[in-house]
Amino acid sequence: MARFPLRPPVAVAAPQPAAPPPIEEYFDIPDEEPISSGYTIRSLFWKATIGLLVALGIQALASLSPSLVELVYSQTIYFHISRLLTYVNRYFSISLGEIFFGMVIIWFFLWTLWYLRRAFRGETRVFDVIKILFLHLTWTFSTLFVLFLLLWGLNFQRMPISDSMGLIRRPARSDELQAIGARIYSGINKNYDDAAAGQGWSGTSRLPMPMAKLNEILEASFQNTPMLGAARQGGLGVPKPLYSSRVAGVFGAEGFFIPYSGEPLYNEAVPNCDLPFVIARQKAHQRGFAREDEANLVAYIICTNASDPYVRYSGFLHGIKVLEEIEKSGVGQYRDKVGRGPSTDLDARIDYWFKTKSDYPDTLLQRLTGLYLRINRVRRGYENFDEDIPLIIGYYLKSPTFQPRESSPASVPPATTAPQTTAPPLTPRPVGDGGGGGGGGTGTGTPLAPRPVGDGGGGGGGGTGTGAPLAPRPVGGGGGAAAKAPVG
Predict the structure, then answer these.
(1) 481 falls in which pLDDT band (50, 70, 90)?
(2) Residues facing 256 on adjacent strands
(3) What is the distance in angstroms between the CA of the first residue and the CA of the last residue of the chain?
(4) How do 263-266 and 240-241 pair as beta strands?
């Protein structure tokens, strides 16, 4: 039986006698196992390709029946997979997924460097090095993609969250948009004031609790949110800080979700005002909400309904992007209504990403995250991060406590049109091109339009996630989801 080639054939020159010409023998594997022959290399390549095509076929079939995926995979099979992975990784304080992907990257880098060096010295052929490297990459990608689909990736094909939660998807009226805008900016200001009481903040806000307490608050909020269905249940692993948080910051990533280990990872260097939302988004990926817009919506619901005012403040602060879209519709102006304290946090967020993020790595991660999302049949790719805006509006329209006409004139700008008119439909804002954007450090954008990267993964974390990635932003989640890219 032929063995899988781990290295290219090596040319060894025999000692040169005086008379006969030098004799060169190529050997690495015995003659009876001609693994280095073109036919065997081609057969191994096609086996990996066929496995990848089968996985893509399963993904395509799953996309034809989202309700079946929701019932059989997302709410049943994945429920047990996530608990099994938690049982394995809960004994480690560091991320197993981060270590695994770090080892894979180091392996390919050193392998390529070593054998290219030998090729330049005439000990093997450059063509053989490239051929074996391409074979290794094909098998690695094919194997990881199959595992990604089985362990988490089929969640991309589940029912849209707008259907499973029964969100309102009609265009909002102008008075409704006014009330939503007032709800968001008043939520930002009030919860900031409540959280700041007795803290003595001079400048930017600081997380007023240890990370273990923050995770408890988020878990309690998840489990007290009936609209999440089976995903509200606990028993999952705790979020872990990225060991490579500084590197993630250079790429503009807030977090990832690693599907292969079931670990939500977060960049611990991001501004404190963003940490609760970033972690909640990766935990949403962990619960099977793979799409970045859906993970953002879940994180928004969880944070804004949490028991702690600082966690609620972090959630409402994500709603700044919704305020920007409402302003674009011509309904009212809300930026000036955000208080001085939250405005200081927004400025600190912009300053952090301006100093940390590098344009080329950030652009590379955006493109890889967009490719990762499109492979998983998310049509708009990286722009999916901003498609949570209509979902958040639909969530408020569905809310039984949402009563736009009860908003006081002092807190809500007067309507510019008749109360029953329909405002222009809100569409996700185009993705920026890097360079000190809003939250999450991706894209140019204005201070009103934070855009997280998140989540993979492993699945590439997504999530990295969460980031999302993605998810990532995932990275993660992914796989790491990617978090935005498994990114998160």
Answers:
(1) very low
(2) 265
(3) 41
(4) parallel
Query: What residue type is assigned to position 433 of the chain?
Result: D
The predicted-structure confidence for 77-87, as pLDDT tens digits, reads as follows: 999 999 999 99
> What whole-number distance in Å separates Cα of residue 260 and Cα of residue 241?
17
Q: Per residue, what are the HEC states of the chain?
A: CCCCCCCCCEEEECCCCCCCCCCEEEECCCCCCCCCCHHHHHHHHHHHHHHHHHHHHHHHHHHCCHHHHHHHHHHHHHHHHHHHHHHHHCCCCCCHHHHHHHHHHHHHHHHHHHHHHHHHCCCCCHHHHHHHHHHHHHHHHHHHHHHHHHHCHHHHHCCCHHHHCCCCCCCCEHHHHHHHHHHHHHHHHHHHHHHHCCCCCCCCCCCCCCHHHHHHHHHHHHHCCHHHHHHHCCCCCCCEECCCHHHHHHCCCCEEEECCCCEEEECCCCCHHHHHHHHHHHHHHHCCCCCHHHHHHHHHHHHHCCCCHHHHHHHHHHCHHHHHHHHHCCCCCCHHHCCHHHHHHHHHHHHHHHHHCCHHHHHHHHHHHHHHHHHCCCCCHHHHHHCHHHHHHHHHHHCCCCCHHHCCCCCCCCCCCCCCCECCCCCCCCCCCCCCCCHHHCCCCCCCCCCCCCCEECCCCCCCCCCCCCCCCCCCCCCEECCCCCCC
Q: What distances in angstroms separate CA 29 from CA 4, 8, 133, 134, one per listed residue?
A: 10, 10, 17, 19
Q: What mean pLDDT comes out for the span 333-362?
A: 91
C-beta separation of 455 from 472 below 8 A: yes
- Measure Cα distances from 58 to 68, 76, 121, 153, 372 in Å: 13, 18, 46, 11, 17
Task: Find where tokens 């670990």 sit.
Answer: 263
pLDDT tens digits along 17-53: 555 666 655 555 444 444 444 457 788 888 889 999 9
**Contact status, residue 248 vs residue 224, Cβ threshold 8 Å:** no
The domain limits of the chain are: 10-162, 170-481
**Six token digits for residue 396:** 């408020």
Q: Are 451 and 443 in contact (CB under 8 A)?
A: yes
Handedness of CA 131, 135, 138, 144 (dihedral sign): negative
